[in-house]
Amino acid sequence: MHRRFFLSATAAGAISVLTARYARAAGESFEVTRTEAEWRAMLSDLEYAVMREEATERAFTSPLDKQYGAGLYHCRGCDLPLYSSAYKFDSGTGWPSFFQGLPDAIGTKTDRKLLFMRRTECHCRRCGSHLGHIFDDGPRPTGKRHCINGVSLVFKPA
User: Fold this and answer.
1) pLDDT tens digit string along 94-125?
2) d(CA 2, CA 8)
3) SS3 (DSSP) at 105
4) pLDDT tens digits for 50-68?
5) Number of folded domains in the chain?
6) Distances in Å between the alpha carbon of 71 and those of 82, 146, 155?
7) Which residues have a catalytic role annotated?
8) What kind and span of H or E run contains 66?
9) Which DSSP string corresponds to 36-47?
10) The domain containing residue 76 runs over which residues?
């Protein structure tokens, strides 16, 4: 019984990962598009894994987590301004966190990669690069926490 459950859960997880990976290529179009080779040439292995394959960087590894200077956080993939430093807060999670994005900068979709869990994935609306996830445990005024992979961002001081 346990082996059958394990095999079923493993198969379901693999199917959901493959579905999520190919759904972006098949169903969404973005203003900025590049071939896989072009993305690989401009991004490090970690940046590619996070931004193009929806991986997650390790917590507390991004220097942007503790960056609190005034400025804007841009998409590493297409340079679109995504977040203002005025929206940043210390969530204690180990990833840069914001209570909102800039107007018309962030796209979202439902993420079902983790079994029995639905999350809101966020990405750059212009190039589709994966940024992180949005949770409902943030501060006022929105109550949202955009939990963002620092490797997806470039900070530009004011």
Assistant:
1) 999 999 999 999 999 887 666 667 789 999 99
2) 10
3) coil
4) 999 999 999 999 999 999 9
5) 1
6) 11, 17, 7
7) 147
8) none
9) HHHHHHHS-HHH
10) 2-157
